């Protein structure tokens, strides 16, 4: 049997850590009631040469920080909110890729997600869609924002857009 020896310096060093851990509250997933979603096309910054893009802006109007997925699933719909088949293009290479931690959105702050796509029928035999809305599902329900942009894909594919990680446009 052995005995642990502690001195007063050890306890003084551990005391702030213990009190910080005791005072910390868990950060919960963002709820739809606390997040405001809108789009920002940056005055056409990402548009040109058959390309289009915009940022989805997610503002935490709640009173506490909350967590968002690092790359949340988006959905697109027509003017009557009927779903359209539009998938995120996956980058070549390692799939599904590294495990990514959730992103913390401080109360009163906004994070962005950059979306990019081919905006004209530049593909032989390609096809285009024009979603009226983009939506993001969160705890408590889905948030939607007007989209109204043309997205085109290669013939036989539904990978219409690329998406940055949350907070890294």
From TrEMBL:
What InterPro entries has UniProt attached to this entry?
Answer: DUF4232
Q: Where is the DUF4232 domain?
A: 30-142
Q: Which domain of life is it from?
A: Bacteria
Q: Name the UniProt key words of this record, in alphabetical order.
A: Signal
Q: Which residues form the signal peptide?
A: 1-22
Protein name per its UniProtKB record: DUF4232 domain-containing protein
Recorded source organism is: Yokenella regensburgei
């Amino acid at each position: 049997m052995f005995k642990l020896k502690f001195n007063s310096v050890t306890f003084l060093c551990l005391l702030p850590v213990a009190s910080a851990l005791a005072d910390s509250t868990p950060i919960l997933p963002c709820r739809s009631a606390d997040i405001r979603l809108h789009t920002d096309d940056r005055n056409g910054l990402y548009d040109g040469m058959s390309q289009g893009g915009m940022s989805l802006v997610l503002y935490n109007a709640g009173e506490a920080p909350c967590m968002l997925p690092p790359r949340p699933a988006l959905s697109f719909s027509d003017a009557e909110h009927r779903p359209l088949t539009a998938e995120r293009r996956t980058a070549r290479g390692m799939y599904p890729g590294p495990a990514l931690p959730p992103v913390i959105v401080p109360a009163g702050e906004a994070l962005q997600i950059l979306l990019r796509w081919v905006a004209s029928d530049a593909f032989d035999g390609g096809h285009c869609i024009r979603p009226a809305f983009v939506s993001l599902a969160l705890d408590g329900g889905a948030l939607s924002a007007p989209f109204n942009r043309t997205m085109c894909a290669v013939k036989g594919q539904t990978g219409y857009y690329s998406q940055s990680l949350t907070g890294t446009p």
